[in-house]
Amino acid sequence: MTRMPFRIALVVASALAVVAYASAQSSMSAPDAITARQQLMKDQGAAMRSISQKGKAGDIMAIAVDAETLARTANQIPALFPPGSIDPATSRAKPEIWEKWSEFEGHAKDLNTKAMRLAATARTGDAGATMGAATDLGRTTCGPCHEAFRGPEIKK
């Protein structure tokens, strides 16, 4: 019984975050968008590392929190890439993001879907299924998006 209200709250919170970011998108400067999305990606990387560490430690059910972070932040990705927010000196974002916008958005939606599935699987406590879902998430969402839309490391 307690799962349904939590899921509804997660969906409502995610929807509100998307609306807030979408409304802020038009007023967000390119440097601000770059800074915000770099922080979001760092947060996602931290969540992925935490999922891996919790999996290795056998703390399977705790993975749900990190997966929910990924689901929430996935919804925020498109709004943090307003047109023109590209700067090769500070951002690895490739122009292909805006040229293939629907594909880019699809990766964010896939991340949200698979992260929510990972959270639900983690709550079952099934280690094999959970780690399989985590591996699938990284292999089918993070990797393909980075390969298509993220440029090489910036040398400083």
Word description of this protein:
It is a single chain. The protein has 156 residues and is mainly alpha-helical. It has one domain: Four Helix Bundle (Hemerythrin (Met), subunit A). Helix content is 74%, strand content 0%. It contains six helices and no strands. The chain has helices at 3-25, 30-57, 63-76, 96-99, 101-124, 127-149. Helix 3 (63-76) packs antiparallel against helix 5 and helix 5 (101-124) runs antiparallel to helix 6 (127-149).
Outline:
The chain is mainly alpha-helical.
Q: In terms of topology, how is this protein built?
A:
Layout (H helix, E strand, L loop, with lengths): L2 H23 L4 H28 L5 H14 L19 H4 L1 H24 L2 H23 L7
Helix pairs in contact: 1-3, 2-3, 2-6, 3-5, 5-6
Order of helices and strands: HHHHHH
| Helical fraction | over 70%
Shape: elongated
Biggest β-sheet strands, sense, barrel: none
- Total domain count: 1
By DSSP, the count of extended strands is 0
CATH class: Mainly Alpha
Q: Uncertain spans, ≥5 residues at pLDDT below 50?
A: 14-25
* Percent of sequence in beta strands: under 5%
Tally of DSSP helical segments: 6
CATH topology: Four Helix Bundle (Hemerythrin (Met), subunit A)
Which CATH architecture? Up-down Bundle
The assigned structural class equals mainly alpha
- Measured between the Cα atoms of the first and last residue, the distance is 52 Å
Average residue-wise pLDDT:
88
